[in-house]
Protein 1
Amino acid sequence: MNEYDVVVLGGGPAGLAAALASFNEGMNTLIIERENRLGGILKQCIHDGFGLIKFKEKLTGPEYAQRYIEQVLACQIPVLLNTFVLTVEKAGTGFVITLVNAAQGVEQIKTRSLILATGCRERTAKQVFINGTRPAGVFTAGTAQHLVNIEGYLPGKKCVILGSGDIGLIMARRLTLEGAQVLAVYEAKSTPSGLSRNIVQCLNDFHIPLHLSTTITRVFGDNRVEAVEIARVDENMRPIKGTEQVISCDTVILSVGLIPENEIADMLGVEIDAATKGPVVDQNFMTSVEGVFSCGNALHVNDLVDYVSESGEIAGANAAQYVREATPRQLAEIKMSPDFLYVVPQQININSSNRKAVLYFRSREVRENMRVTIKSGDQVLLSKRYVILRPPEMERVRLVIKDGLASNQIEITMEPVKNKEMAL
Amino acid sequence: MKHLICIECPIGCSLTAVKSGEQWEIKGNRCRKGEQFAINELTDPRRSVCSTVKTTYRKVPRLPVRTNGEVPLNAIFAVMEQINAVTLDHPVHIGEVIIENVCNTGINVIATSDLYYLLEEDGQ
Amino acid sequence: MVRGDTVRKRLQVLENRVRKTISPDVSLRKWHSSIILEGTVSTWDQLYDAGKMCANQGYKGVVNKLKVKGLEILKIKKPQLADDFLQGKQVDVLVIGGGIIGCAIARELAKWQLSILLVEKEEDVAMHASSRNDGMIHPGIEPKIGSKKAIFNVKGNEMYTRVARELDVKLIRCGSSVLFDSPLLKLVKPVLDIRANKMGVKGISLLSREEALQKEPNIGVPIAGAVHFATTGIISPYKMTVAYAENAVQNGAEVSLNTVVLSMTKEHGRITSVKTNRGTVYPKVVINAAGTFADIIADMAGDQFFSIHPRKGEILFLDKKKGELINGVIGKPSLTQTKSNTKGGGVVKTVDGNVLVGPDAYEQPFREDFSTNMNNIEAIMQKHLPLIRGFSPADVIAYCAGIRACTYEEDFIIERSEYVDNLVYAAGIQSPGLASAPAIAAEIERITCKVLSEVMDVKPKQNWNPIRKGIPELSSMDFESRSKIIKENPHYGEIVCRCEGISKGEIIAAIHSPIPVTSVDAIKRRVRAGMGRCQGGFCLPTVMTIINEETGIPMTSITKKGNDSNIVVAETKQNPTTGGEGVE
């Protein structure tokens, strides 16, 4: 059985960054990727806007991915492509991974530590309780994106899109540019889910209407989509009787959310945070299972790939540290006020030699002029002002963990800024 | 009066613009970048165009490309027409020019993926 | 004379009752030994109630020709295909209908030296009820004692062990627990035992609350105990249908998909020809296994002695992850058929580890309306999810609807036609149709051979092979066997559907199977690619590419489920881009 120090599951931006970080620390590293190329979802994200933070350039997904792929190839980090992980089990001081591919059949490998960079999947029509018939022409945005960008096929001619998240907005533009007609984007919430830039450049530029507080409830059509039924929704996003309308179309594109993929994490009994649907981790991105790390979209759904890479780097570097010297952890919980949707990491390992934590969080609602404070008892660890906080825009802060925290609990709260001055 | 959302930074100020004579009066911006953004958007809006080109390779039927800079907003579909007319029959590296000076905008269309790499046999 | 008077009087009494309680616009008349309702009513419920009122009143069958004011009954959906492929074909047996019943019949008849043609109007077998049920092989305790349902269910249940093994289809005898919350229901046991004895149902036991919880530790409702039926099994109903059909084909039968029966001609009380969209065929005997359209087929032969009323039901599918919370089949339905004609549903753990919840049951006019409705889905969730602690609406990954082919007598019709010599019926097959299939097929085989032997020599085939090997299910194999298959064919090592762990090799095998299929859904039915939690989000483009590589069918011609259900409409960049909505 081959043995490694660090095995990274997933060769997308998170896994590539993690593998490089681990390799650069001198670890015997392996990447396992189930597709036939590295790059993950970035391969099909041919639009730009990636890497503004990391590279100070506006790159497309494939370009961003290639920056990392080139390094991985140059370092000759071993990669298993077209390889699928069947099971992972704890074994002694490490893990045994059972995998399958065409060349080797079913094989097992051993590793000291594991980095889960398995990304996420898309929420489906049935998960948002769209009823009616099941004709051809209903796609999740990612699947439609793959068909258009990788294979070169148009999923339909007259499309409606449910969900104003970035993927839905990007596809609105993409489909329009390739000659389809996008009739409207419907959004069940009362505010758009995607970045403002995308509202402007994907919808407004092409005069595609955005209907808020509206959802798709039914699909019509025997063989191919013929129409959808839309309805206004109330504050709880439940359809309001009597507001139904039938809209003719031949394609339904769904952009109704991403769900972190954590089947492997479940197999290992990793504790999952119900708010993120990803593992509970400390500032080193180690999960509740010693030696198992999580990063990227599998940890929580990100907006910016730059932060995905960052979380991969942190996970990779710390997996290496764990392999070098596994020390017992002392975990302090980060308690968040109800103003937050989630905070990652959810814990701080006070014993860790890594005293610099990166924290990602999302506000539950749109809030203006807020001060976010992170405290341990009376000790203020961070105090930052925000002109605006929006749920679709994840925030990132850096935290220094002083020696001798005042208490075992760390709290993150937000409150309105006292004075009315606007900060730049 | 025109309404715009500034996209220069994540704050996304809601701007209003009123034309007075030849000038635009911008309100709602928290910084100068917002004012400049609004004026640009109203006088000479520009966008980058990202798409794919056909190839002759069955294994890789499409190669992603983008404009190496921003073209006028009203030239987007003309640029797309030029992009759609291309059929790539030789491998290219990232950044190689696929269309030079597309639609006379002074901007090139470049490859954003490495076709040499994509065409390689899957290694195991 | 006198008898005629009595008959007429009885009819009159019934007619008066219907006119009084349902609608004055109804008239009844006798046809052979059946009763025909004609006239107009205001609602479908009235139409159904009128039919019900006339059922089991001493007539052979109820033919309900009532019309509902303002309701347009949709015509049968026909395939787009039209050609001469079958023109002039002479066959010994024509089986109409490719559900599990038709396919099972074809398989049994294939052991005789007969030419067999099965016609199915959809693009694949098992597209109606046979793929829209919970896969439960009932113990047989529920149907009315002495009914055909009862007899064939018990017999079929027994036969399944052998047939599933022969056809290489996974069958799990998981047993079912019927929960009860009143300790008084324990008193029902002796009554149940007598019933079970009469019906031939074995393996019934009474479980105490503790024993029930031991079998099913996650029961989330208060219970006093449970009745356990050890003979209950679960199977994949569409995989079983495909297996039956493939084994029939392997033994010489022909299956023609996208083939709909349009009309028939008769001479001297025998069917002489059957017209389809692919030409006219000349069968010696016709078997009517046409599901929700069996009465329409009967009418084509001038022999409609019953009517089908479509009873719809929805089922939900839960994420495989929750499969570990239950071990078998659990329900809190009625133990005997009292009020409703169908059991109340429950939760079923499928052979693949998913959980099925439901079904519900309600009358409605449309024979092929498989649309789902939020009200029904919500009602099923409310009724059944609480049965297990840990089930929630967030676990739902899919739902679908099915239509039951019910006669007003609510029993199977398994017999030779009384008036058309060469027509045999396997009609009105509703639940427990799946459980009864092997037994129904055996009986129809017997009847058909008898009918045929009146006009020809029926001899057994020397080389009939009952054994059919299915496509290997790698995801459920041990690693060693799995590796072995991959070494022989590396395609089996390339995982395409990650949610269900389905390999490229399995998909290729489905495309080249004995009943070749090229639509994405047909492949899904055979190997489950696309049935997992992401519902094909990741694997759809790859499955399409594989179909294209294996068959040469262009991507733009690949369909979801045949006819014009094309998945992608055009290749991009074929024409100069039109201006779309335009930009400023």
Note: Confidence is low (pLDDT under 50) at residues 334-342, 577-584 of chain C.
Protein 2
Amino acid sequence: MAPRLYLRAAQRRRIRELSLAAWPLEACGLLEGPDVDGPRTVVAIHPMPNVDPAPDRRYTIDPEDWLRLEHAARRRGQTIIGVWHSHPHGDPAPSPTDRELAWPGWSYLIAGVTNTGMRDLRCWQIDERGCHEQPIVTETS
Amino acid sequence: MAEVTLRIPTPLQPYADGNGEIRAEAGYVDELLERVGADHQALVQRIRTRDGQLRPYVNVFVRRTDIRQLQGLETELHDGDEVIVMPSVAGG
């Protein structure tokens, strides 16, 4: 099991809202936090436009958008620690495309949603050895 | 020959011995990758294909412009340039 991911309850609600607003398309964004090994804390959830030509089954973040955010995060003493996106079919497990395009060391937060709500939110680290779930610790304050 | 800095984002740092940046002298992007690859082969293998082309899910920026909009790997470098490798963030 991979190290824990700390997420505030408000961030969790925000991902749910953004994912439901985008349904039946995939919503996506980046996770900002400190560049540390071990347990990670998400300090900000950044919604990003899904620029993929098939947004009902894939997501792509414009690299220039990422570049701008990476610079801004570094000025704040943080970095981009991962990505979040939604699966409009409700399953929060990494898809074959997620596994193929994942970057090792990043956290992949996946919201499984349907038209009625968010079924589950799970987080993964993905590398050539497989998908390793990161337990999410939701903080209320 | 220009003195430049190759900036490496978090997902690629494990392939660069944990470095967030590498300084090198090079006249062109192609030459920069060749020089960096001498010490960090695993990193450059994730940027270029075996035949030397840029991988489709990797973007390289020089002076904040994607080199695909410049002269590609033949883009000229100047003293102080920052060359940034940005893997695409995508999935399904």
Note: Chain B touches chain A at residues 9-14, 57, 59, 61, 64, 66, 84, 86-92 (CB under 8 Å).
